[in-house]
């Protein structure tokens, strides 16, 4: 099983980016899927999570700006990021609980310039 994230890049403050993450391999069940981020010198932190039923949760710092969604049929999870701030600059990692195991994607860099 693998997770591959893509969609990061450089954007000006106030702009938007959409991250995508694809799960592949022999998959029987995907439970929670989520996005984490890690800024230089900081610990990795949860950004957003979505359950298999579609319930969502967000870090306070991104509520109202970021939206997580998933496509169960295509084993994808997305993070729509709007009104980006320089403080959102980090490497973003997708995460999923698949076949009763925890998996991580390789990370994608998001840089927000002021």
Describe the structure.
The protein starts with a strand and ends with a strand. It is globular and about 45 Å long. The chain contains no helices and eleven strands. The chain is 0% helix and 58% strand. It has strands at 2-6, 9-12, 17-24, 30-38, 45-50, 56-58, 66-71, 76-81, 90-98, 101-104, 108-113. The model has no long low-confidence stretch (mean pLDDT 97). The protein has 114 residues and is an all-beta fold. The strands form two sheets. Strands 2, 4, 5, 6, 9, 10 and 11 form a seven-stranded mixed sheet that branches.
Question: Concise description?
Answer:
With 114 residues, this protein is an all-beta fold. Helix content is 0%, strand content 58%. It has strands at 2-6, 9-12, 17-24, 30-38, 45-50, 56-58, 66-71, 76-81, 90-98, 101-104, 108-113.
Main attributes?
mainly beta, 7-stranded mixed beta sheet, 114 residues, 4-stranded antiparallel beta sheet
The number of helical runs is: 0
- As residue ranges, the low-confidence spans are none
Q: How would the global form be characterised?
A: globular
Give Rg in angstroms: 13 Å
User: Would you list the SSEs in sequence order as H and E?
Assistant: EEEEEEEEEEE
Distance between the termini: 38 Å
- Helicity range: under 10%
Strand content: over 45%
Query: What is the makeup of the main sheet?
Result: 7 strands, mixed
Count of strand segments: 11
Give the topology.
Elements: E1 2-6, E2 9-12, E3 17-24, E4 30-38, E5 45-50, E6 56-58, E7 66-71, E8 76-81, E9 90-98, E10 101-104, E11 108-113
Parallel strand pairs: 2-11
Antiparallel strand pairs: 1-3, 3-8, 4-5, 4-9, 5-6, 7-8, 9-10, 9-11
């Amino acid at each position: 099983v693998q997770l591959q994230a893509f969609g990061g890049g450089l954007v000006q403050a106030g702009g938007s980016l959409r991250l995508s993450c694809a799960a592949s391999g022999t998959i029987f069940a995907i439970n929670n899927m989520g996005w984490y981020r890690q800024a230089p010198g900081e610990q990795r932190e949860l950004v957003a999570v979505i359950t298999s039923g579609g319930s969502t949760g967000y870090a306070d710092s991104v509520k109202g700006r970021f939206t997580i969604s998933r496509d169960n049929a295509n084993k994808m999870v997305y993070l729509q990021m709007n009104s980006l701030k320089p403080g959102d600059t980090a490497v973003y990692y997708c995460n999923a609980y698949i076949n009763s195991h925890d998996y991580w994607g390789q990370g994608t860099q998001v840089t927000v310039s002021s």
